[in-house]
Amino acid sequence: MQDIQLDDNGLRKTPLYDYYVEQGVKLVDFGGWALPIQFTSIKEEHDAVRNSVGLFDASHMGEIRVTGDDAIGFLDTILSNDLTKVSDGQAIYNAVTNEEGYTLDDLIIYKNSDQDIMVTPNSGNYEKIYKWLEKHNDGSVEISDETAEWGLIAIQGPDAEEVLAKVTDADLPSIKGYHFSANETVAGVEDVVVSRTGYTGEDGFELYIPWNETRSIWEKLLEVGADKNITECALGSRDTLRLEGGMALYGNDLSEEINPLEGGIGFAVKTGDKKEVDYPGKAALEAYKQAPASERRVSKGFELDGKGIARQGYEVYSTDGETQVGVVTSGTKSPTFDKAIGYVMVNKEYADNNDEVLIQVRKNKVPAKFVKKDWLRR
């Protein structure tokens, strides 16, 4: 297995690193990887994905392969979702929790078969998750870190399928959401995994590509997508897109101090009789569900009614301005809706009885209202 190369600042290089340098793209530290914040402007890239098609380098994500006679059964004792109902060719979202129920990571697994599953941790967490899986391995499975073997390109937006179809014979319409097709050929490159997943709130695909072939596919997609104004996109627009789509971000909305129930991904957490086997944190999460509302927190969407943008870490107060009831975990100015939106972590008892708060934005406490995280579906 090849090693991931480092730049002069000690940051990991994605397979597009040399391309970025040649194009004069500014790179920053993102989870230990050298990645761009933007190519042109965040708004331009954001609008391209909402209206046509955008291209993202997501090669910083981890890839861990778990194989063995009952690899799916092993993972079912580690992950929060119920894996017994997952079919071959299906991807499913999960949380990884410690014994106290706090979130080590949120991730997607790709099931090739009961004996072969790909686990895809977040960029800054893949080494931690690899060690966590090894810690719980009783010898029944083999766990391989394949992060250095795969590049990952996301092609997202309403025109994504039309553009991708120009470079592959894969039956794209037959790939349903959160399903994938392995061993496809894309732009002449074999052994590509084509997955109908993404992190933008739009339709699209993620392509798991043999590492050294990633750049050739990137450049080919730019070429064939020119008539759709395909746009190179980076971390800045990725964040505004996922936030409008109601998606959590590890390190903001989830962490080792935030459990997945209060972090807003309870749909991926099965406790009690909803999942037969135990996993680390299952009992703690079930107990958390039963705790009084005054002892729990909940993630709520918000829209700011006044001026400013509420950023991560800003304090949230009751409407009298006297009592802090929570904190902002994610916030931005929505390019699509032209308003300040985000997520707050607030006391559940307060949220159950109120639909407004004040958020400390610099020197002012600015009114905000709770809303569902469904901006794109309204």
From TrEMBL:
It is an enzyme of class 2 (transferase). Keywords: Aminotransferase, Transferase. This is Aminomethyltransferase. The glycine cleavage system is composed of four proteins: P, T, L and H. It holds the Pfam family GCV_T. It comes from the Bacteria. GO terms for molecular function: aminomethyltransferase activity; transaminase activity. HAMAP family: GcvT. It catalyses: N(6)-[(R)-S(8)-aminomethyldihydrolipoyl]-L-lysyl-[protein] + (6S)-5,6,7,8-tetrahydrofolate = N(6)-[(R)-dihydrolipoyl]-L-lysyl-[protein] + (6R)-5,10-methylene-5,6,7,8-tetrahydrofolate + NH4(+). Belongs to the GcvT family. The glycine cleavage system catalyzes the degradation of glycine. GO terms for biological process: glycine decarboxylation via glycine cleavage system. Its EC number is 2.1.2.10. It comes from Atopococcus tabaci. NCBIfam families: gcvT, PRK00389.1. Substrate binds at E206.
